């Protein structure tokens, strides 16, 4: 009798969680968010929301190899660091980078948001700071505290739909900044199909996690349509306050927000919300 009760408890506790995010590179092993949720006993599925196209890489490469013209680097997404890697691979300039250029950048400040971005920057031999800031808003405050207004401009390679929080804060505080769009963001071509397949095969998940305001914009209509009357039963989770604000602006009831934008914090928040 005891055994059957235990099996029933395990069965009912194991809930489906849908992660609306980009997968990790295959080289870097299994996705940490899926792993963490599974360690809490939940079944996680990942559906990619965005597709990325790199642009202006020749201009970017030129600027990367002139560190003396800039006061430091800012990366607020893994994609921007991937663009650096592409420049090095494309131009066959890895040796030059490793020999001298990365050290010239490391003599300046290299700012990042989040652990994934920091880890990618470190894989290129860079020494980033700010990985625990979690948002561009908090990072901008760190930069303003640390930097003088008379430095050469900080260089900020970014995406086509970046938020203006960081550039505005730096500009208002007189910190010079140069931005360059190095990737364009669009809806993943298979998003609608993948969502439909998921809901058909797995049913409505117990929880859905959003990882960016763009994710909210591209997915929400389909999620509402596919979940129908069960929408209000879903525990919606946000990776951070910016994403949470985008969700509440769309009228979603957000059950939990990760304390920090890490797999551990998000999985713990979702696990608590599902209890």
Question: Could you describe the 3D structure shown?
Answer:
This protein is an alpha/beta fold and 275 residues long. The chain has helices at 2-13, 32-39, 57-64, 78-91, 94-106, 115-123, 136-146, 165-172, 191-202, 213-227, 241-249, 263-273; strands spanning 16-20, 43-47, 50-54, 72-75, 109-112, 154-159, 177-187, 207-210, 235-238, 254-257. The protein has a 5-stranded parallel β-sheet with strand order 2-1-8-9-10, with helices on both faces. Helix 2 packs parallel to helix 12, helix 3 (57-64) crosses helix 4 (78-91) and helix 7 runs parallel beside helix 8. The two termini are 24 Å apart.
How are the elements arranged and paired?
Layout (H helix, E strand, L loop, with lengths): L1 H12 L2 E5 L11 H8 L3 E5 L2 E5 L2 H8 L7 E4 L2 H14 L2 H13 L2 E4 L2 H9 L12 H11 L7 E6 L5 H8 L4 E11 L3 H12 L4 E4 L2 H15 L7 E4 L2 H9 L4 E4 L5 H11 L2
Helix pairs in contact: 2-12, 3-4, 4-6, 7-8, 9-10
What key phrases describe this protein's structure?
275 residues, disordered N terminus, 12 helices, 5-stranded parallel β-sheet, elongated, 5-stranded mixed β-sheet, alpha/beta
What's a concise summary of this model?
By secondary structure, the chain is of the alpha/beta class. It contains twelve helices and ten strands. Strand 9, helix 11 and strand 10 (254-257) form a beta-alpha-beta unit.
């Amino acid at each position: 009798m005891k055994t059957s009760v235990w099996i029933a408890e395990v069965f009912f506790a194991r809930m489906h969680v849908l992660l609306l995010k980009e997968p990790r590179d295959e080289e870097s092993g299994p996705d940490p968010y899926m792993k963490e949720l599974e360690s809490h006993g939940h079944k996680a599925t990942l559906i990619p929301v965005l597709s990325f196209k790199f642009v202006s890489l020749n201009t970017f490469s030129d600027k990367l190899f002139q560190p003396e013209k800039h006061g430091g680097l800012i990366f607020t997404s893994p994609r921007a660091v991937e663009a650096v890697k592409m420049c090095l691979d494309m131009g066959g300039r890895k040796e030059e980078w490793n020999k001298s250029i990365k050290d010239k950048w490391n003599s300046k400040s290299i700012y990042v948001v989040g652990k994934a971005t920091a880890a990618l920057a470190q894989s290129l031999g860079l020494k980033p700071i700010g990985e625990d800031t979690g948002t561009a808003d908090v990072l901008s405050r760190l930069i303003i505290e640390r930097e003088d207004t008379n430095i050469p401009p900080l260089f900020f390679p970014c995406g086509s739909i970046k938020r203006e929080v960081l550039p505005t804060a730096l500009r208002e505080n007189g910190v010079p900044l140069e931005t360059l769009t190095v990737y364009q963001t669009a809806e993943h071509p298979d998003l609608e199909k993948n969502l439909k397949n998921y809901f058909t095969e797995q049913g409505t998940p117990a929880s859905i996690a959003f990882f960016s305001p763009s994710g909210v914009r591209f997915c929400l209509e389909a999620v509402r349509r596919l979940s129908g009357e069960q929408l209000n039963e879903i525990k919606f989770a946000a990776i951070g306050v910016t994403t949470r604000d985008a969700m509440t602006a769309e009228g979603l009831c957000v059950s939990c927000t990760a304390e920090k934008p890490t797999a551990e914090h998000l999985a713990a928040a979702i696990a608590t919300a599902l209890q």
